Prior knowledge:
Layout: E1 7-12, E2 15-21, E3 27-28, E4 31-32, E5 35-41, H1 48-58, E6 66-72, H2 83-86, E7 89-92, H3 94-100, E8 101-106, E9 109-114, H4 116-147, H5 157-168, H6 174-182, H7 207-225, H8 244-252, H9 262-272, H10 276-286, H11 303-316, H12 319-329, H13 349-375, H14 388-413, H15 417-479, H16 484-495, E10 502-506, E11 509-514, E12 517-518, H17 526-541, H18 547-550, E13 556-560, H19 571-588, E14 593-598, H20 601-622, E15 627-634, E16 637-640, H21 649-660, H22 671-687, H23 691-694, H24 698-701, H25 707-715, H26 718-724, H27 729-734, H28 746-763, H29 765-771, H30 778-794
Parallel strand pairs: 5-14, 5-15, 7-13, 13-14
Antiparallel strand pairs: 1-2, 1-6, 3-4, 8-9, 10-11, 11-12, 15-16
Helix pairs in contact: 3-17, 4-15, 5-15, 6-15, 7-15, 9-10, 9-11, 10-11, 12-13, 13-14, 16-17, 16-19, 19-20, 21-22, 21-28, 22-26, 22-28, 28-29, 28-30
Amino acid sequence: MLKDIAGIRVCGANFESSSDILFLDPHNGNKIKKVKGSLLYGRNGAGKSTLAKAVKSAKGEVQEAIIQADFLDSNNSPFELTPEDKSHIFVFDEEYVDKNIKIQESGLNTIVMLGHQVELAEQIQTERKNLEELKTARDAQEAIVQTYEKDDTETSPKYHMKKMRYALQGDDCWAGRDKLIKGNRQNTSVHNDTYKHLVPFSTSKTRDQLIVEFNEALKSLREAQQGNATISSSISTFNIHYDEEKIMRLLKMKIEKPELTEREHYLLELAQTGNTSQLNRMVTIFSNKNVCACPVCMQPVSEEYKQNLVQSVQKVLSKAVEEHQESLRQFIMDEIEFNFSPFIKLANTDLCSKLLLEFNAAIKYNNLVIQSKIDDPYTPCEQQLQPISTLLTRLNVAFDKLECERIEYNKEITATKPIVDHLTKINNQIAHFDIQDSYLRYLACAAQAKKEQEKLVELQNASARTKHRLDELEAMQKNVQVAVSIINNNLNYIFFSNTRFKIDYRNGNYILLSNGKSVRPSQVSQGERNIIGLCYFFASILQNQEESSGYTKEYLLVIDDPVSSFDIENKTGIMSFLRYQLGKFLLGNKDTRAIIMTHDLPTYYDSEKIFKELTAASETICGEKPVYRLYELKNQKLVTFSYNKRQEYSELIKIVYNYALGNATEYELVIGNIMRQMLEAFSTFQYKKGFDDISTDQSILALLPEDVYKTYFENLMYRLILNNGSHRLEQTQSMSDMYFFTVISDSEKQRTAKEILCFIYLLNKKHLLSHLEGCTDIESNLQHWCNDIKNSCLM
Length: 795
């Protein structure tokens, strides 16, 4: 769980070797304390940003600079968090602002993109760039592919295909020779794919040898042909079953008439006069529910009339009649068609043609007789039928003789086929010579054309995929909603104004307003962008959660430099906002913890006050008093930042004394504040004046034992040093170098400490000695330092 995190093992960037950074170490001597938070000071370059990246890496985010990042428990042992726990770790740093806050111009407005919108915007921009690059590449590739589609460019396969066609056309080419072989009137047609069946015909003979061989074989063909040609179509007999006796029985069959009404008698007369098909059409028409009028006379007909009419027709056309008609229809035959033109040279062709005409005439006659009985099923038919079976037998005998004659005829001329086959092979071999060079060039160009086409298809597919991805991203961007009201409330808190900065949602975009008016991106400072990022950071933690329950969950919050050098003018608002948000989270769940890292000492002091107040409040709410840690990150290690602003006056004097002796280097960063507070306390309680005034007040200077000291301390510029070492806001704002005091040498700081102690000692010896009680060699050291001052003035 998150509460088990005591620190992190990190390697990478500022940490060249693996280092254990226990920023939430619960150990306090032999005791285990509940750590609510940690405050970490580090100069620029000390590795604070690396620690922030390490936390993100340990929770699963890719950080290229981080080689190793593992969370450590209280025993310095690495352990793995659950995905749920990792999702409750949030890190605010410069990278967070860059990743989640994007400000761009759109017309007269400044658009603010937050969180996932920034990522989508960057992805959209990337995909648009990719799509444009793909379009350029695709257009260029299309131009290349088009060159392979032309037939007038040597790089095109069609160019060489056209050359092969030219090589095959003409009287002296393959097409003309093939005409001579087949005896056609025109040269054989040459198509784009004609070359394909000529490619396999390679030979070791020369083209001239093949031409001589072709001419000799052609001469032999002409001698063998004698104008004849084989008849390839075979002749078969007709297998037809025709039962004249059964047909005669059906023709003579009498079907009894039903008892009919006057209308039905009329309908029967229609049937007897061969109009049964008209009756069937009447049934079809008047059975249709949509028919409301007679299609002949156009008079309206009722549904009852239609039903009665259909019943009457069905009575006349009874089931027996229908079955009788169907039996007759089975014997209606189609006439036989046969093309005699291929067999015109055969002797039996005329006989077969004559017999076929007789057979078809008989079929036609019999069909008319059968149809008359179908049309009048109630009246027996006494007409005689033509002898179809007899005629069919005679016809089949004649066709058998014609087939035998065809076979004998073909035997007489088949000797020419081997010659034709030989000539065709020679012609193909000659053509192979004629197209060989163009064919090889065609293959090379076709292979290259295929590669270029594949490149084009790949680019087209990539463009389609990119366009689809771009459409998806743009749709997602339109659907991303941000809790603007929460962010605006946070901005109001920081700026103490509901108009100073505001985000408004218009037409699918988040518009940035300042004092109710649109601002240009160039008018938005880095500090203001950082503030928007901090507001979004806390708002995003509660995303998709109810505010009332969101704070009750366990979190680990890591905040790197909440106040940058760009934010000085809004520092009070930022720190107040930070106090408000950390109060919500740290007091909402007893296990929620926070780590604040900063390079700014004033921010460090203000943050320490926040932790002090919140840990006290946590004791009241949770019933147990947690602690918070104060660290400095130095040489890739955490060292205790032991200065406490509320130390007793005596302790301050002792720290300055030990520092003057060179024995308290751990206070190097904050000694300016300590000296200022010590001197301020002394001047206030002793003389009710500020520390700036006591060394210029003549009545106070008159208390010094010798004039040489008066002159020295009146002109001493320790006030500048102490003021610049102060963490007061108005002084910090006026400094061009935020680290003024940190660049003063250690020896200069020690000298200042000695001079301040001497000043107090000379004014009130007993006062200083009483507060330094317990220290060694106090008077001898102070006397020695005072003599150094006197000697320096007398030189």
